[in-house]
Amino acid sequence: MARARSSPADSGPPAAAGVLIPAAATALCVAVAVAISPSAARLPVALCGVVATIAVAAVAAESARRGRLIRELRRRYSQHDAGLRALLADQEAMNVRLAESVLPAAIDRLRQGESVDEALRALGFRAGGVHSAQSAHASMLRSVLSAVKAEEDLRDSAQRAFVNIARRVQAIVHQQFLDLREMEEHHGADPRVFGDLLHLDHATALIGRLADSIAVLGGSRPGRQWQQNVPLFSVLRGAMSRITDYQRVELHSVLEVAVVGPAVEPLIHALAELLDNATRYSPPHTRVHLTAIEVQSGVAVEIEDGGVGLSDEARVRAERVLSHVSSGLDLTDLGETPRLGLSVVGRLAQANGFQVSLRPSAYAGVRAVLVIPRDLVTTVPAPTMSIPGAGVVSAGLNPQLVKPVRTQYPEQSAYEVNGNGLPQRHRRTPPAPFVNGSAARATAPPAPT
Q1: What span, in angstroms and rounded, lies between the C-alpha atoms of 416 and 434?
Q2: Where are the bilayer-spanning segments (predicted)?
Q3: Average pLDDT of the residues in 266-279
């Protein structure tokens, strides 16, 4: 704290007293000495006393002057010290603000598409500022944002390249599905040829899932788009068809509901990734149990395996991967052996409103639960949809394990376009009876868009 500045009037009387008192005391002593001295010695004593008095007064005056100078220097030092402390406090506050609010806000603006100059102007930083510290902070912030911008541009370019590559593979896979569909229709009477075609259909589905995963991590969506609602049973079977060890998956009771068209492909892909993790990280002789039950918030799909389970640290790390997926694909995090499953599930869950959790399983492994929101579930449509790659799974299903479970979801209204081009509302047809076994391959999947 700076000391109060003293005025000359306040310091005048003490300084004068400091000069007069020693001189007066010396003069008094000289007068006493002259009075008691003999007559012949009074003059020399008086002269010596006068000289001594003058000398004492001069010393006292110089001492008082130096005292005033020291006090002034101390006052100036105190003010300078207080100013430096205030400046350091301001700079510390600026550093904290820069690290905690300005820099994150600037990076968010960069990710929203603003340039470095626009972000700096919006945050109140301009080059050549009056305050030297603020100018230095602006220069440092510009350098950091330029580096972040270059890194973001590089990552965006890599993501676009990955998505373009994935789209090419998806187009090839889609054409392969169409060719296999035609071959199955031509050679369906021969069981050996038909079985080989189903095997190729399954292998093509695995390639398509990998291409879809790359596209999803690049910020895009899975390749296929479903215009009609698909039964949940067909969705689960389609997810099983996109993993290698589909024979190990036991499909238990399934609700007799359907999934709305826009959510079908993301749900199939997310469940396929969870099933792949369950089969990949559990002993090959164990079973993976797949169940769909109704819950308060929608439909919960449970996947339980008999693997080694997850430690608390591994579970926290996996849930972090599921939740922190908004930044997209980062090539530096892939490593030499990329593990994309949970990242893909996290992005799909974030984009479609799925809730994914990992818990210990009753079989000492992992239980993954994916909750489908109620607004993405509807009644079973009358036509049975066909999912590419699901035919190979049909032969492995046990009709005694898969049981339909009716639910009380209300029927939803559908819309058709009349002759005037306007939507006309009508009631959806009642749910079709549940049928086990392979689905009819009546409708080909739409082309990737």
Answers
A1: 25
A2: 12-37, 43-61
A3: 92
Sequence-ordered alpha helix ranges (H) in 132-260: 132-187, 191-217, 232-240
DSSP 8-state secondary structure symbol assigned to residue 99: I
| Tens digits of residue pLDDT in 153-188 | 887 888 788 888 888 888 898 898 899 888 988 887
Structural domain boundaries of the chain? Answer: 8-111, 228-328+341-449
- Give whole-number Cα distances, 159 to 107, 174, 213, 445, in Å: 19, 22, 12, 27
- Bin 361: left if φ > 0, else alpha if -120 < ψ < 50, else beta: beta
d(CA 260, CA 375): 9
- pLDDT at position 111 over 80: no
Q: Can you tell me whether residue 345 is helix, strand or coil? A: helix
40-59 pLDDT, tens per residue? Answer: 777 887 888 788 888 888 88
The CATH class, in words, for 228-328+341-449 is alpha beta
Q: Is 100 exposed, middle or buried (0-12, 13-18, 19+ CB in 10 A)?
A: exposed
59-83, pLDDT tens digit by residue? 888 888 888 899 899 999 999 998 8
* pTM for the structure as a whole: 0.61
Kindly state the tokens that stand for 229: 């609602």
Is 275 within 8 Å of 240 (Cβ atoms)? yes
Answer for the pair 435, 260: CB distance below 8 angstroms, yes or no: no
Residues facing residue 371 across a β-bridge: 300, 355
Q: Binning pLDDT at 50, 70 and 90, where does residue 387 land?
A: low
Nearest-CA neighbor of 267 among 316, 306, 234, 227? 234
| C-alpha span between 248 and 365 (Å, rounded) | 15
In the chain, how many H helices and how many E strands? 11, 12
